[in-house]
Specification:
mainly alpha; MetI-like fold; transmembrane; MetI-like_sf; transmembrane helix
Length: about 250
């Protein structure tokens, strides 16, 4: 699993003429750190980085909010057709993204959001997987928490924000990482919807290192590593929440 990333790093530090040399050299004789500077200067890297960053941040915030609220409602609140609606959410998870791409494209076009970042943010604000994960997480929490909150006079909304939400860090961290990776690495959707160069995202910007006759593989690998670095950092920051247990104490009753 690690070998492709090591080869990517090796290629990013070589001269383009040495990439296909045989036998291959993992460590080039002359390491070209300048490739990273040239890669960032070859396309509007910082503009694309900002576009990708704020779209990803807004998407994560929206997914966390909708997933936590809907998961709590499906797990802890009683309302008509609750189980049937949850089955609808589960059925959406089974539909391939390619099937709903054309209907969403037509809807975005009718709303006048073509070539707008709204077309990348709004359709992604609700995640069926996130709702499912949060529902299962909240179902595992003891009912005594709700009983204690009810004795203290908390309504369901206050119970959610004061008790359930603070205890759901592991699940929220998992959803955040998956949403970050999906949004940050998104390629086809921004390629179809965004036509203005200054509004593009990093993944689409990598296409500028390829043309009909040649590909600058060393700069392409350097730029790809620059794009992957935030994903790696986010994962390293959030991984401790994956194994964090939940200690529920101080329950009144």
């Amino acid at each position: 699993m690690v070998v492709p990333f090591v080869w990517m790093l090796s290629t990013s530090l070589k001269d383009n003429s040495l990439i296909f040399s045989f036998p291959p050299k993992w460590i080039p004789d002359q390491i070209k750190w300048r490739n990273y500077q040239e890669a960032a200067a070859s396309f509007p890297y910082y503009q694309y980085f900002w576009n990708t960053f704020y779209i990803t941040a807004l998407t994560i915030a929206g997914v966390l909010l909708t997933s936590a609220l809907a998961g709590y409602a499906f797990a802890r609140m009683q309302f008509p057709l609750r189980n049937q609606l949850f089955l609808v959410v589960l059925s959406i998870m089974m539909i391939p993204g390619q099937v709903i791409m054309i209907p969403i494209f037509l809807l975005v076009k009718d709303l006048g959001w073509m070539d707008s970042h709204l077309s990348l943010i709004v359709p992604s604000l609700v995640s069926p997987f996130g709702i499912f994960l949060m529902r299962q997480f909240y179902l595992s929490m003891p009912k005594e928490l709700e009983d204690a909150a009810s004795i203290d006079g908390c309504n369901p909304i206050r119970t959610f924000f004061s008790i359930f939400l603070p205890l759901s860090k592991p699940a929220l961290a998992t959803i955040s990482v998956f949403t970050f990776m999906g949004t940050w690495n998104s390629f086809l959707w921004p390629l179809l919807l965004i036509s203005t160069k200054s509004k593009q995202l990093l993944t689409v910007g990598l296409l500028q290192f390829q043309n009909m006759y040649a590909t600058q593989y060393n700069l392409l690998m350097a730029a790809t590593l620059l794009v992957l670095l935030p994903v790696f950092l986010v994962y390293m920051f959030a991984q401790r929440y994956f194994v964090e247990g939940i200690a529920v104490s101080g329950v009144k009753g």
